[in-house]
Specification:
Chain lengths: 299, 345, 278
C-alpha cells in the first residue's frame, strides 16, 4: 500500500462491526465501487492485451522483436540497471543519516528528497535540457568536449535517476525511525565496527522496506515517460525507451504494434503489483511474529 | 577494572542532566545508581558506556582516560532495558555476535566460539533455547540472553540500564536474586541503574542515590537506609511520616504531622519510618500524639495501620501481627503513637 | 563547552552518510532546480510576465486546474467508496481488487495514455457507446478528466484505507449502543476521523493531476487554447527552443506545486499516511 514506510498489515480480516451496516448500503457501495474499478482499471487493462493481439500472434511477435523494439528494451533495462542501484545506495545513506542522527537541516534534506514528487515529469526533464542542452548552462562546454547528454543515452539515464531517487529513501526512513537505534548501539558495545553493524544488524532489519522501495523504484524507472520524453529527442533506435517507443508507434498509426510493446509494459506492471503484494505480506508476517509474546510473564 | 567519572556535566538543550558528577567504582564491585526519572542515572551510565559523550569531564578506566573513545573500543558490556536483541538472529547467533565480529587476528576458531556460547547459555540456563528467535521468548528469557550476549566478549565492566524494568514483579524479583548470584560467581565490575529502591538495596554492594543530576549520597545499602544524608534520600528509600518537631533538653519532640502543608525553610522536621512507631493504649511517654484508628490492613508480613489526628492528618504505622493481637485494635479506637527512632533534618 | 551543528553521537558513519547524501542531492536536485531560476532570469520581468500570463498560458492553467479538480473530486467520492468496501466488507476477489488499485502507479503513463484514447475515441468500445448519446470524450477536456481520474485513483484509496483499518471498532459500537442510526454514526463519528486523510488524498490526486503528462497527452488532442494542458505547453515551447518561455511557465507551475506540497505536509502532521508515488 502506498503509505510512508511499508504498512504493518495488508488487508486484515473484515471487522465484525461492519456486518451491522444496513444491507442496502452495503450492496449499493460494493456495486458502485466495483463498477467504478471495472470501468477505470479492469477495462483498460484488458483492452491493452486485446489490442495487442488484435493482429494475431505472428504480428505480435514481429512487433516486439523488431530491432527498434529490442533497442528500446535494452535502453529501458540499462536505465533501470543504473538508476536503481545508485538510488539504493543513496536511499541507504540518506536514511542512515536522517534516522540515526540529530542535526540542523534535517527538514531541509527531507524536503529536497521530496522534490521529484512535486515536480511534473516534464519539468524534471526540462531541468536537464536547461543544464546540458545546446543552449544550456553547460552546453558550450559539452560541445567543446564532444559529449552529448541531452538527446542521447546519458541524458535519459540522468532523467531516470532524478525521477526515481526518492523511492528507496522514502521507504527506508520511516522504517528506520520506527526501529530505533537500540540494536545498533548494542552491536557497537559488542565491538562491531560501523560497517559490520550496518551490514549485519541494520540491513536485515530493513530488508522488506528496502525491497519494497526497489520494486517501486524499478517500476517507475522502467515506465517513466514525461521526463525522458523531453530529454530523449525521440531518435529511433537510439534514444527510445519502451514507453517512448510506444508513443512513436502510436503516432505512426501502427496501433497493434504499439499495443504489443505496451503489453510488455503492462505485464511488467502486473509483475510489480504481485511482487509488491508478496513483500507486503512477508513484512506483515514478520511484524506479527515480533509482536507476539510482548508481555509474557514466564520466568 | 576500576571506573572513575570525574566532574561529568551533560546538558540536553537547557535541561541539565548531570552537574559535575564524580563517581568511583572499584574493581569487582556491584554498584547501583538509584534515583527517580530525570535524576541523570541513565545518562551517566551511557556516558560510561560511550553511548553518549559528556559536555565536560572525563571517564577513566583503570586510570586511563577513555572519554573520547567510541563505545566500540571500550570493552563494556551493556544490557538495555528493552533487551535490544537482534531480532533477525537466533539466540545462539545473538550471543555469538560479539565473538564473530572481532577482527580476524583476535577471532576465536569456530569450535571455540560454539563452546563459549553454549557455556554462557548454560550459565543463564537457556541452553535449550539456542535455536529460537527473540520473538519466541518471554521477557525474562530475553533479558537473560541479553546478559549472556554482553558477557560473551568478556567485558571489563558490565553496565545494565534498568534491566528488569520491563518485567513483571515476580520475574523481577527472581532475576534480581539471580543477578546477585551471577555477580558472586563472575566478579566483573558492574553498574546498574534502577528507580526501584528495593532492588538497589537488595542487590548492590554499594548504592549511589542520585537526584536532579547530582549524587545525593553513596554508601552501602545499610548506610543509605539507616543513615540517610538528606531528606531526599530518606524519602526515596522508604515510606515516611513527617512531623513538625522541636528540640527540648537535647531530645526531639514531635508535634503535628506536616501533611503536605507548606513549611518554613529553617523549621526542623522529624522523619519517622512507619515500622519505627509504637502504638499504645495508655499514654505514658511524653513524646506522643493522640490519634484514632482509621483503617487496618493485616494482609501482609506486617500489619499496616492508618491513623488520623484530631485535625484529620494521616499517620502510617506498621506493627507486627503479635503486637496487633496484643493491642486488639479496631477501627475508630483512640490510641497513642510515639516514635522509636527519629531523623531530623 | 562544545557547541556544534550536530550532537556527537555514538553511532559511526555520519560523515560518510551525510557526505554522500549531500553530494548526490546537489548533483541530482539542487543544480538542476537552480538552473530553472537561473534561466528564467534571462527573460526580463515584463517578458516573463507576458508569457506566464499570456492567453495561451492562462487557458492551459485553467484547463489543468479545472480538469484536475473535477478528477480529484470524482476520485474523492469513489476512492472513499472503494477504500470503504475493501476494509469493511467481504466480497469475492477482494484481495485481487486491493492489489489492482495500485495499477495506475505501476503502469507507465504512455501505456495508460494510448489505451484510454483507444477506448474513448469515437471508434472505441466506450467512445462509440457514448457517441450514440452525443457525448464526445476523446480530444475534449472531458477526455483529459477521464485520464486524470485513472491516474489519481490510488491516492484517495491508499490514504484513507489505513485510517479506516485502524479505526477503533469500539467507537462505532458505543455510538450504536447510544441509539445512533448508521447515517448518524457515519457523519458524527467516522467522518471526522477520516476527514484529514481524505483531504490529503484528494490534494495529492489534485497535485498529481496538475503535472500529469503521459496519460493525458494522447487523449487530449492538444489544441492550443482548447485542450492544451500546462505540461504540454511547456513541452511545445521546449520543442520550439523557447527555453525562456518554457521556464517562465514552469516557474508558475512550480510555485503552485510547492504550495500544495507544503499544504499536504501540514496536513500530514495530523498523523496521516501519505502515498509514495507522485
Amino acid at each position: 500500500m502506498a503509505t510512508t514506510g511499508l504498512p504493518g498489515t495488508t488487508l486484515r480480516a473484515v471487522k465484525v462491526a461492519a456486518r451491522r451496516d444496513p444491507a442496502l448500503v452495503r450492496s449499493g457501495l460494493i456495486a458502485s465501487g466495483l463498477c467504478f474499478l471495472a470501468l477505470f482499471l479492469v477495462l483498460p487493462l484488458m483492452a491493452v492485451f486485446a489490442s495487442a493481439f488484435s493482429g494475431g500472434i505472428a504480428a505480435y511477435w514481429s512487433a516486439i522483436t523488431q530491432p527498434e523494439a529490442l533497442s528500446a528494451v535494452r535502453l529501458t533495462l540499462l536505465a533501470a540497471l543504473i538508476a536503481v542501484p545508485l538510488n539504493v545506495v543513496f536511499g541507504l545513506a540518506a536514511s542512515w543519516c536522517i534516522a540515526r542522527f540529530d542535526f540542523t537541516g534535517k527538514q531541509l534534506l527531507l524536503t529536497l528528497i521530496d522534490v521529484p514528487f512535486t515536480v511534473s515529469p516534464v519539468i524534471s526533464g526540462m531541468l536537464f535540457v536547461l543544464l546540458f542542452g545546446a543552449q544550456g548552462v553547460f552546453g558550450n562546454w559539452l560541445i567543446d568536449h564532444n559529449i552529448r547528454i541531452v538527446f542521447a543515452v546519458p541524458g535519459i539515464v540522468l532523467a531516470t535517476i532524478f525521477v526515481t531517487f526518492p523511492f528507496v529513501a522514502r521507504e527506508l526512513i520511516p522504517t528506520m525511525l520506527a526501529l530505533g537505534s537500540d540494536e545498533e548501539q548494542a552491536a557497537l558495545t559488542l565491538g562491531a565496527s560501523g560497517w559490520r553493524t550496518f551490514l549485519r544488524v541494520t540491513l536485515p532489519n530493513v530488508k522488506w522496506s528496502l525491497l519494497y522501495g526497489v520494486i517501486l523504484c524499478n517500476a517507475r524507472a522502467m515506465g517513466e515517460f514525461g521526463a525522458v520524453s523531453v530529454v530523449s529527442g525521440h531518435i529511433r533506435g537510439l534514444t527510445n525507451t519502451m514507453p517512448l517507443y510506444v508513443e512513436i508507434l502510436y503516432n505512426d498509426y501502427q496501433f497493434s504494434s504499439a499495443f504489443a510493446v505496451a503489453s510488455l509494459l503492462a505485464m511488467l506492471a502486473l509483475v510489480t503489483l504481485v511482487a509488491k503484494s508478496i513483500v507486503e505480506w512477508k513484512s506483515a508476517r514478520d511484524l506479527e511474529a515480533s509482536r507476539r509474546r510482548e508481555n509474557a510473564d514466564e520466568y | 577494572m576500576s571506573i572513575e567519572a570525574r566532574e561529568i556535566t551533560k546538558r540536553f538543550g537547557s535541561f541539565v542532566a548531570l552537574d559535575r558528577v564524580s563517581l568511583r567504582v572499584e574493581a569487582g564491585e556491584l554498584v547501583a545508581l538509584l534515583g527517580p526519572s530525570g535524576s541523570g542515572k541513565t545518562t551517566l551510565l551511557r556516558i560510561v558506556a560511550g553511548l553518549e559523550f559528556p559536555d565536560s569531564g572525563s571517564v577513566l578506566f583503570d586510570g586511563q582516560d577513555t572519554t573520547d573513545r567510541s563505545a566500540q573500543d571500550r570493552g563494556v558490556g551493556f544490557v538495555f532495558q528493552h533487551y535490544a536483541l537482534f531480532r533477525h538472529m537466533s539466540v545462539y547467533d545473538n550471543v555469538a555476535f560479539g565473538l564473530t565480529v572481532k577482527p580476524r587476528r583476535e577471532r576465536l576458531p569456530a569450535a571455540k566460539i560454539k563452546a563459549r556460547v553454549h557455556e554462557l547459555l548454560k550459565l543463564v540456563q537457556l541452553d535449550w533455547l539456542a535455536s529460537q528467535y527473540p520473538s519466541q521468548l518471554s521477557g525474562g528469557q530475553r533479558q537473560r540472553v541479553a546478559l549472556a550476549r554482553a558477557l560473551a566478549v568478556e567485558p571489563r565492566v558490565l553496565l545494565l540500564d534498568e534491566p528488569f524494568g520491563a518485567l513483571d514483579a515476580k520475574v523481577r524479583q527472581e532475576l534480581r536474586r539471580w543477578l546477585r548470584r551471577l555477580h558472586d560467581e563472575i566478579h566483573v565490575t558492574s553498574i546498574f541503574v534502577t528507580h526501584d529502591q528495593e532492588e538497589a538495596l537488595e542487590v548492590a554492594d554499594r548504592v549511589v542515590v542520585m537526584n536532579s543530576g547530582r549524587i545525593e549520597q553513596e554508601g552501602s545499602p545499610n548506610d543509605v537506609y539507616h543513615h540517610p544524608a538528606s531528606p531526599f534520600v530518606y524519602r526515596f528509600l522508604g515510606n515516611i511520616n513527617l512531623f513538625h518537631a522541636r528540640m527540648e533538653d537535647g531530645r526531639v519532640l514531635i508535634s503535628e504531622p506536616v501533611n503536605g502543608r507548606p513549611v518554613g525553610p529553617s523549621e526542623p522536621l522529624a522523619y519517622v519510618r512507619p515500622h519505627l512507631m509504637n502504638i499504645e493504649r495508655q499514654p505514658h511517654k511524653p513524646n506522643q500524639l493522640a490519634v484514632w484508628v482509621r483503617h487496618i490492613n493485616s494482609a501482609g508480613p506486617l500489619v499496616k495501620v492508618e491513623l488520623a489526628t484530631e485535625h484529620g492528618d494521616q499517620i502510617h504505622v506498621e506493627i507486627s501481627h503479635e503486637r496487633y493481637e496484643e493491642l486488639g485494635l479496631n477501627e475508630d479506637d483512640a490510641v497513642f503513637v510515639s516514635p522509636r527512632d527519629v531523623k531530623v533534618f | 563547552m562544545r557547541t556544534s551543528l550536530k550532537k556527537r553521537s555514538a553511532l559511526p558513519g555520519f560523515g560518510l552518510a551525510t557526505g554522500w547524501t549531500v553530494f548526490y542531492l546537489s548533483l541530482i536536485v539542487l543544480i538542476p532546480v537552480s538552473t530553472l531560476f537561473f534561466k528564467s532570469a534571462s527573460l526580463t520581468w515584463s517578458q516573463f510576465w507576458s508569457v506566464a500570463t499570456g492567453p495561451r498560458a492562462l487557458a492551459a492553467y485553467r484547463l489543468s486546474l479545472v480538469a484536475s479538480l473535477v478528477a480529484a473530486s470524482v476520485n474523492g467520492v469513489f476512492g472513499l467508496v472503494v477504500s470503504w468496501i475493501l476494509v469493511r466488507y467481504r466480497f469475492p476477489l477482494r484481495r485481487l481488487v486491493d492489489g489492482l488499485v495500485d495499477l495506475p502507479f505501476a503502469l507507465p503513463t504512455s501505456v495508460a495514455g494510448i489505451v484510454l484514447t483507444t477506448l474513448y475515441a469515437p471508434t472505441g468500445r466506450i467512445g462509440s457507446l457514448l457517441a450514440k448519446i452525443g457525448i464526445k470524450v476523446a480530444y475534449t477536456p472531458l477526455g483529459i478528466t477521464v485520464a486524470l481520474v485513472f491516474i489519481g485513483l490510488p491516492f484517495v484509496v491508499r490514504t484513507v484505507q489505513p485510517v479506516l483499518q485502524d479505526l477503533d471498532p469500539e467507537i462505532e459500537e458505543s455510538s450504536e449502543s447510544l441509539g445512533a442510526s448508521f447515517g448518524r454514526t457515519f457523519r458524527r463519528v467516522l467522518l471526522p476521523e477520516i476527514l484529514p486523510a481524505w483531504v490529503t488524498g484528494c490534494t495529492l490526486a489534485f497535485a498529481r493531476g496538475l503535472g500529469e503528462y503521459g496519460s493525458v497527452v494522447f487523449i487530449a488532442g492538444n489544441m492550443p487554447m482548447r485542450t492544451e494542458i500546462t505540461p504540454l505547453l511547456i513541452m511545445t515551447k521546449l520543442d520550439e527552443f523557447e527555453y525562456g518561455q518554457a521556464t517562465a511557465i514552469a516557474v508558475v507551475f512550480l510555485v503552485v506545486a510547492f504550495s500544495l506540497m507544503l499544504a499536504t505536509n501540514f496536513l500530514q502532521r495530523r498523523k496521516v499516511a501519505l502515498p509514495v508515488l507522485g
